[in-house]
Amino acid sequence: MITGTALNKSYRDRDGKKFSALSDVNFTIREGEFYVLLGPSGSGKTTTLRAIAGLEHPDDGEIVMDGQPVFRGTDLCVAPEQRPIAMVFQSYALWPHMDVFANIAFPLLYGIRRIKSDQVRPRVHHAAELLGLIEYLDRPISQLSGGQQQRVALARALALRPRVLLMDEPLSNLDARLRGLLRIEIKALTRSIGMTTVYVTHDQTEAMVMGDRIAVMHAGRLIQEGTPRDLYERPNQTFVAKFLGDMNFLNARVTGVTGDFLEISIGQFTLRGVASCSVPQTGAEVSFGFRPEDALLVDAHQGHNGLPAVVTARYYTGDAQLYQLESAGHVLQVRAAKERSLELGASVFVEVAPSACLVFQETQPRRQRNE
User: How far apart are the first and last CA of the chain?
Assistant: First the structure.
């Protein structure tokens, strides 16, 4: 449905220095897919979305939508209103002096894609019905909650019946509980009508819940793309691993290969793990990583992938016990069943299946115990 090829975009800061907002960004978004652009502030995700919308002009590259080029370097740039899109902004951009009906109807009456006046009411009612807004059509915008206003902004976009829906952090102004509810509603709605959706967020949970595929961006580059499970379980570098949840990292050295696993040494202990991307050479300094929920705390070493550790802190999180431990000069976190309660200072072994351990060709700075 949408492809972006070799997109680059540079700006100049206040001192006139040039910096890159997009660096050779490439992506392919399938028809009917919910595609999430995920990254921290300044990563390039919103610039990419605005380039798809036509609100931002890359310096070079190409964007094709539904088989038709809409941007090609300096030769072609189709105006936003001529692209088969609708966009929902973070601020909602609603008219406060109008009621819900008028806000949804506005682009149908006055926009470049306006329709015949006798078709407006059925179109508005259909969009309002999809979003559960029928009973609010006569209500002023100022009398709606934040979640209801977000639904109005989404209904206005859907009323245009676009081929592609673009959403720029539309839930960031809502409280945590409402965000959780609307994530599920938006994903279910777009899936039910088969609409291609491109969604920008910096929220890892939001991306994991909503995305069919996620593109992780950092410093203007798209550094990994895949399903939520692919990215969480097989990140290709430490930035992706840390941005998509918690991960423990230990500095290690590669000592060999056994079958499908790399053997690495941490002090006097040998463990096994899977190469995150390319296979490092024997002797290479690497980072050995695993998720807190993938580790087990056992009283005695059973000859498996394990390290001795000492419990330094314990936190009850409701669904689990989160332990902080010191092991081999590193600070680790392990999520364990809430029924088990280890005392501070207890000696344990941290064991992780080799298939749940990743080896990255990057070393990490040592963490302090009080972090």
Answer: 45
Which of 183, 191, 217, 189 minimizes the C-alpha distance to 202?
217
- Cβ contact 154:55 at 8 Å: no
Q: Which two tokens stand for residue 79?
A: 């105006």
pLDDT at 357: 96
Which residues have CB under 8 Å from 21's CB, separation 6+?
Answer: 9, 10, 11, 44, 47, 220
CB within 8 A of 60, min separation 6: which ones?
6, 7, 8, 73, 74
Which pTM does this prediction carry?
0.90
Handedness of CA 335, 338, 340, 345 (dihedral sign): positive
Helices (H), 96-198: 100-110, 117-130, 146-159, 176-193
Q: Which domains does the chain have, with CATH numbers?
A: 2-238 (3.40.50.300), 251-360 (2.40.50.140)
Farthest-apart Cα atoms in the chain, separation = 79
Q: Judge contact between 39 and 218, C-beta under 8 A.
A: yes
pLDDT of residue 266: 92
**Are the beta carbons of 19 and 11 closer than 8 angstroms?**
yes
Q: By 3-state DSSP, what share of the chain in percent is helix, strand and coil, each rounded to 5?
A: 25, 35, 35
Amino acid at 158: L
* Tokens standing for residue 16: 């006139």
- Which tens digits make up the pLDDT trace of 84-119? 999 998 888 899 999 999 999 999 999 888 899 999
Joined tokens for residue 305? 């992938």
Strand partners, 310: 326, 347
Q: What is the mean pLDDT of the chain?
A: 92
pLDDT tens string 298-315: 988 776 789 999 999 999
Instruction: Please choose, from the candidates 240, 171, 239, 174, the residue with its C-alpha nearest in 3D space to the C-alpha of residue 209.
Output: 171
State both tokens at 58.
């890359």
CA 127 to each of CA 94, 161, 196, 239: distance values in angstroms, whole numbers, following the listed order: 16, 9, 17, 40
Helices 117-130 and 100-110 cross at an angle (nearest 10°) of 130
